[in-house]
Structure formats: structure tokens, C-alpha cells
Amino acid sequence: MLVERTPNAKSLIVDLFVSSRGVEETPQSHGQRHLLEHLVALGAKGDLDRRLETAGGFLRARTLRDSISFEMNLPPTGMKDAISALRDLVSEHGFTEAEIAHEADIMEQERALRDAAAQASSEAWGRAFGDRGLDPFGDLDTIRATKPAILEAVRKRAFSAGNLAVVVSGNVDIDAATKAVADALAFLPVAKVSNPAPLAAADAKSIAFGTSPGEFRAVSVPGYRSPDTAATLAAALALATVAEGLEVIYTPSGNRGLVLIGSPTGDLSAINDAQAASLFDLGRILAARWVRNRLYEPETAAAFRGMLLVCERDLKPEIMLENLDSLQFAEFERAFNGFTGRASRPRALAVKR
């Protein structure tokens, strides 16, 4: 748990993160966590959204690879409502087949709205890590076939005390807020959940390069704590400045992951000729700005801290800033060459859309 007091905050943020430990995606369960997110967000009586809106707030939920996150955004004095909502989220829900079918229809509409970047990221993860890289969105056939009892079993494994992280940000009394959250979660069982085996690095044999529109290149990184990850993100952000329309995709994680650069319509040929020496300082600046921008607003800061906290209890956003401060050009160049194809052992996986 992390409670941050921000005296002039215009809202109260309470974020709940539910780790994927013990409920990792498999071909047989692909999408059950996403389904769980949809149904849990409704509340035990299906009225959680309405209750929060009545209190002047709202709930935002999403499913990531490492966790499911539930963000409650309320007026500064809304701690009582936030705790009530938190207790509702972690309580037994009693899912029904009708609810599952209804949410599956909504998820089908969501899938139709996924952009090219999300699709490219999904494909890159699958090619890099196989079944260990299954997209958290899920498979709709698997989702529709999920029975209430199966989903409740997933919920019980996921919502054990050791699998949860809570971040509170607002004009709150730290001790009182800490006690209120602890009391709300006190009834949850404490189950021992083992961490899965670490993801292996992407297979270099699958690497290819192209310059067609709609291409994304993905480089495998060890995890947020690693200096290699800071170097790779800095390299990608620097390379994204050499042509119009390029974007960088990276979700902070304590686990191995991917940094992507590309565009749904752009041409990546410009990055092949880019020179690391001329972009080193810019890359460090952009990566540090990437971190600080996510810490500027209470909403994004709570989400950033929570998605790291749920992976490792001492993993903080500032670790990357420290790694960037000590980043050497040789480390940056090695990461840079992973995207451009000039590395002695290429690390980039090209995905064309």
C-alpha cells in the first residue's frame, strides 16, 4: 500500500491493482482476467458506477499484462465513498451466465475499436514470447465459454491479499487513510502465490527488418529496474523524432517486456540511417521527461506507481531517472542499434500491419 498526501489536490484517487500472479493468461483461460475486470467493475449489486457518480466521482478499469487496475476518482473529501467502493470491488460477486454473455458482447465492440498500435503490440508480444505473451484483451470464444464457477475461482485466486496493491493520492491524513484501506481489505485470505518463471528474451532468429508503412519494431527489455530498459526507452524516444508520425509504446513493468517504435501509416526507413551520437543527449532528456510527465498529475502518478508496486514492493518510477542519470553512451548505442539493425546480434522484432 502507498498513501501520498497532496494538500492542494482537486480530487481523491484510490487505485486498486490486482496482480496476474496465479491467474496468468493461457490459451485455455485467455481473456478471463479481462472478463473479470468488466464484471467486478459493476460492483456486487451492479450499481457501483451509479454510486460513484452520485458521489461526484467515477471508476475507470483496465486489464494489463501484470495486473487489473481499478481507479476511483472522487472529490477531495470522498474517502468514505472510496473505501466503500474498494470493499465492493474485492468482495464476492456471484457472476451469472447472462452477465458473462452481456459483457462478452461489449468486449466484442471494444475489439473492433482497437487501433493499429494495440494490434501491433499484441502481435509483437505473441511472436516474441509465444503463449507467455498472450494479449490481455483475450479471446472472445474463450470468454464466452467461461462459466460463472470458473470465473469465481479465478476471482478468488486473484483477489488474495498478497496479490493486491492500493495507491491513495489526495489531501488525506496518511495514518487514517492507511488504516481505512487496511480495514477494508482485512477479511481477504492470504494465499501464497508463486511468481511465474521469468520470460525468456525474444528469439533472435525471428528478427526481420522492413520499411513499409504500418511497421512497428519491438525490442525486448529486462524490466523497469534494469538500466538496459532505460537505455532502450531513451533510444526509442530519440529515434521517434527523426520522422513524422512515429510513436513509442512501453508499459512499465517489473517483468521482461517490449519497447515498440513505429506508426500505423508512417515510414520507418529514416531510423535506419540515424546516428546514435547525435541523439544520445536528446534520448536521455526525452526518457526523463517521459517519467516525469507521468508523475505530474495525481491520476497518472498513482497509476504509474501502482503498476510497479504490484510487481515488486520496492519498485518505484524514480529508479529509471537514476538509471538515466548514469546512462553511458555505449549502453545507449547498443540499445539504439537494436532498433536500427546495426547490432551484432539484432534484438528488434519487426511487425508489419
UniProtKB/TrEMBL annotation:
InterPro entries: Metalloenz_LuxS/M16, MPP/UQCRC_Complex, Pept_M16_N. It comes from the Bacteria. Pfam families: Peptidase_M16. GO terms for molecular function: metal ion binding. Coiled coil: none annotated. Residues 2-118 form the Peptidase M16 N-terminal domain. Belongs to the peptidase M16 family. This is Peptidase, M16 family. It comes from Fimbriimonas ginsengisoli Gsoil 348.
